[in-house]
Structures are given as structure tokens and as C-alpha cells.
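Subject: LuxR C-terminal-related transcriptional regulator

B.,
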Amino acid sequence: MTFRPALPQETTTLVGRRAEVGAVRRALQRGRLVTLTGVAGVGKTRVAIRAARLTRRAFADGVVFVSLSGLTSAESLEHALAQAMGIHELLSHSGVRLLAGHLRPRRTLLVLDGCEHLPEEVSALAQALLAAAPGLHMLLTSRQVLRAPGEHTVEVRPMSVPCAGASLAEVAATESYALLVERTADPSFRLTEQNTALVSGLCRRLEGVPLAIELAAVRARAMPLEEILRTMGGQPGGSVMEAAVGWSHDLCGPEERLLWRRLAVFAGPFDLAAAEAVCSGEGLAEEEVYPALAALVDRSVVITERDEGRVAYRMLGGVRQFALARMSAGELGELRRRHREHYLAMAVRLGCEQNSVSRLATWSTARGEWPNFRAAIESYAAAEGQVDNCARMLVGLWFLWLYAGMSREGRSYLERFLATSGIEGFLRLAALMTLTHIRVGQGDLEAARLSLVEADDLVAALEGADEPWEHPGSRYLEIVRGMYHFVMGELDTAEQGLRRALKTMTGSRSVAAAEGIVTLGLVHVAQLRFDEAVDVLRRARRLCAEQREDVIGAWADLILALALRGRGEYAEAMRLATSAVRAHARMRTNHATAFAVEVVGWLATDLDEHTRAAMLLSATGGLWKIEVSAFFGSRQLAREHSACEERLRAALGPHYDRAAAAGKAMSAAEVVACALTLCHGSSRQEKGHGQALLTPRETDVARLVADGLTNRAISQRLVIATRTVDTHVENILKKLGFAGRSQIAAWVIKERGRS
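Prediction pasted inline below.
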């Protein structure tokens, strides 16, 4: 039950490759571990993405795509997989055990791109995951075979090329020619008897390697074929890919070559500001960076990525490796220094109060910079005399750790740093408070208690020092302590501490103040002091609105929904709770989404939406299991969950188990869709109109879906084509406004109960 990134978008047409894509699909039917091999630039990633897209219907829990570019260790590999699958909150188990436990009940296709960087680590991980998760299939791309047990290999060979002396028709029938024409994008180009030999010679010279052909096609837009062949003729020996990349490099101007080399320092996508900050300097003025970058994009050396209005740039692995191989140790060291300093400044800036834009949007963008943040953290950790800067970066990314779904990574880095760095003073206190907050949020209360004790000792030492003591961190520490006492069930202690901290922050518009007010509201809800809770939480919402603090604001909405539920104001409570579901799902933070869906489930129970409530409360179990402890370890919240479950069992009787099973089978997207449906009250299908919307055949299909049959099994039962069943299921989903099969099953169960 995760929020998975979609497969990368195919921004250009896939030319040819039908045989290779078919071979991959057949291999996935025969075995659970398939590796695509081939030389650099041959198109392994494109073939894998197309095969995964065509087979995604076979995997009920979806396809997960992970690029391994820039990863350097088994731990970073586990972190990358956990992040892609939405597992961010657990650290008490090993990464492999966590991933295996998450995948065990699911039918998932995991695509790992670029495994040649970590062949032994990927092989070991694949064996462990496949042994633990019988529904898992893995599709890998690598320049070398992993030689793992049960591995099926598909070689992605270069495209077909015309032989010497080939006729016009023979040249036109080859894949390499088709790709050259497609990427040249020149409508006036025609294959004629006069240029057939030139085209044939160029395709043979490039040996059918797609990336080499694409680089040549860029030149063919402005250079005659004769000139292209002439300039390529002088290339030194080595692989055709190296020759093609080297040829493109030689055709670049001096500024473009310099920027190409310097851009290799980026471990992932980067924006123009980063390129200007890191790559300008000796030989390349800041104002020259964009023209050179645009030229590299035009030459297909750099590719662009657009996401939510943001333009980012990225270098392909082979092109980046070409540049890294041509850098001296001194040049690379200087670039890494500039790179980490740029991302430190970004982390510090992001970590400060920002009121001009939505924090959710800001940190959604920042999460996309994670490969570069990770590289900068590791660079600081490895550099001598950079302990303070490493601490500043880890603390500056606090929002990424706490609210942007990356607490697993944050906890790992903070624990390792605090254990080995010897950092002291205020920076250590800030790191400890961030770590404590993470541990409380994960429900790891014993670990949180230990870091609170250490923080208290540090505060005492700082207060006893000669320097004056006036640091806002001590007040934030009290707010974190209040969260800890709430989860422990020590409500009076939590309230007293929070009030003391907030009193010293009177008039403050900081995030810490908003967090403290929201936590105090939650304490009041637990104390059944609902009127006080409503007053406190409305104050928190006003503060968040003024500061455009939409993430903490979503938490304020959620806790206010609980307070209004306590007062019996269900309609407004449901509106606020579903708003919180939407915000937390967008942030892709599992524990926050789980809690928001949980509250919607409680409200649905109150409103007699019994079937959906049973589905939601059962579904949240999958999200909570990702964490150390459900409900952040709070026994009071867990008791409320159990009380609602008992009410639902009594109301649904024998239908409860089916509804709960349907909930457990839901994907995270389906859970969120089911929760959001409730914000409009009873839907058409809940009023019994759904049956009238379906044709008799669609009704038959819906009933068989509820019985757990696959589309293929349904086609055999009804003696119709599988594609026809696919169409019926899509029509049912559209007519009833559902997101997945499990919701169809729940609806059928409810209709059966009525009849």
C-alpha cells in the first residue's frame, strides 16, 4: 500500500524493438528475475519501460521504477527502493527485512535501472526479496549478467543495420535507418539512390547503437551526411558508444565542453540555478552557462524533465561517465566542494521560515533534489573539517525528514552522524531535537526517551557555560517532549509542558509554535475537552493560513475534525478530514495519510457508512504496518480504532470479513479514493442506484470480481474474450466512480446484504 512514482514518461517515439519487448514479456512469464543486458546506449532502459508498461495489468499492486544511477552502497540501494515504494518511517528492522515484509503480500513488478553500478548488492537483494515475496517479479537493466539463481537474461542487441552495397529498399527496412530519420525530424529528407550509400555507411559506422544514432541525428539537422562521416572517421578505437559520445564532444564549442564535464558532478536532476552556481567560474562566466546548457540539450547530451511547472536537466549515465573519466582528481574535488556548498545553502534556506510560497510545493520540489542532497551529505561526511557543515545540512532538511516522507533516511543519517562526529553545542542540540522528533513520529518511544535524556543533559551543560543562554531550541525541545508525553498517554504532563513552551512563544509565527498548538489541541481531544480543542485548533489554522503553512495546516484540519467529531458536528468534521487526506497523500507521507484515512473511517462509522468504514479501517492497517508502531504508539488512539471495529462487526455481521478483506487488498491510491468519496456524503452506489447503472453482463462481471476471479478466469467462466472482460471492468469502475477492483467487491458485498 504505497504511493509509487509512475514509470518514466516516454518523451520520444520508441522505434522498432518489438522483438526485444516481446522477449522481455515472455521472460517475465517464465521467471521472476529478468535482466536486460547490452552495451551502453543500446536502449535497455527504453525496452524495460515499454515492457513494464505493457505488462502492468498483470501486477495488481503496480509497477515500481527505480534508477540506480549515483548510488554507491547497499544501504543507499535499500533507501532508494524504500523511498520509491513509499516506505519512509521504519528503521528498527534491517532495510532488506523491511522491503521483504512490505512486498510479501503484494503482486508487484520492480524495475531496477542501471544495476551494473552495484552488481553484487543488487544480486543479493534480489535473491532475498524474491525468496520472501512470492508475488514479486523483478526486471533489471545492466551491462553485465548478475548470475543470480533463477535469472533469465534478454540481450538487447544493437538495431539492424544495412549491409555494404544494400539497395534503397533494404536500407529503408532497417531499424537504424528508421531511428535516424525519426530523430533527424527533417520532413525534407528522402532516401534516394544517390544518398543510399551514405546513409548505409553512417548506420554501419554507428553499429546500430540507438544513443549513438540519436547523437548523429542531431548533427544531421545542420550538417551534410558526407561531413558527418568524415568527422567520425578520425575517432580513436574503443566502443562505438565511446566513439559516438567522443565525436559529439569534439563537435562542441569550448564552453559547451567545459560545462559538459562540470555537469557530471550532479548525482541526479538539477535546475539552471544549480548549474550556474556550481559550474560557472574559470573559463565559463555565469551568464554563459545557460547558452551552453541549451546547446547541450539541442545536441541530446543533456535531457530536460518537466514536473509541476519545474524544468530540470539530467545527463544520461553513459554521457556522465564519459565526462567523469576526463576530469582530474583536483578538478573533481573542487566541483564536489562547490556542489555541496550549493546544496548546503539550499538546505539552510529551505529550513528557515518561508512565507512566500506553499511549503508543500516547496518541499515537494526539494524532494526531487534528494539525489543531490544525498551526494552533498556524503561529501561533507567524507571531507575533513566539515563536521559543522554536515550538521547544518542535516538539520536544515528537517522538513524533508519530518513531513515530506523521508524520515527513514533522516534518522539513518542523524544517528550515524551523532554517533561518530563528536559535534557539540547548539548544533548537536538541534540535531538531537530533529532526531527525537523523528523517533516520536515513528512511535519508537524508547529511542525517543533516550535522545530526550541526552538533549536535557546538553541543555544543562549549555546553561552552565559562560556564554549567555538564549536559544529558541530549548522551547522547541519542550514541544517535542509534549508530543512524546501525549503518545505515552501522560496527558496532564503533556499539556503542562506544551503550555509552558507556548507561553514563551507568545506572538511567534514559527512552525514550532504551530506544531505546539496543534499538539495541544490533540491533547485536549484525548482529554475529551472538545470545546477547548476546537478553540485551540482554529487558532492553529489561522496561524497556518497566515504563514501559508499548508502541511502543518493539514494536521490542524485533521485534529480539528476529531474535536468536531467529539461535539457531534460530523459534516464539517468529514470535510476537514478528507481535506487532510488529500494534502497528506500529495505529500506521500504514509503515516500522515494513514492517520487521516483512519479518522475518515471513524467518521464513516458514526455516519453508518459501515461497508466503507470497514474497508478503510482494514486498509489503514497496511499503511500503519510500515511504521514501528501504529498510531505513533498511542494506546488511546488504538483503542478508538478497536471500538470502531467492534461497532462495524456488530452492524455488518457476516459481511464484515468480506469488507475487511476488500480493504486489505486495496492499493494506496484506492484507499485515498475511497476516503475522498465520503466527502460528498452517500454516493449514487450507496443509495442502491449502482445496480441500475450496470448492464446485466456488467453485473455478472462485478459479482465474479467480488468472488476474487481474475479477468482471465472471468472470461473462461462467461465464455467471452479477456479483452471484453477488461472493457466491462473499466466501464464498471467509471459508472460507479470507483478506483479499483476492491471497491467493486465491497459494493457487491453491500448489495448482497441489501438483497
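Residues 1-5, 89-93, 234-238, 679-690 have pLDDT under 50 and may be disordered.

T.
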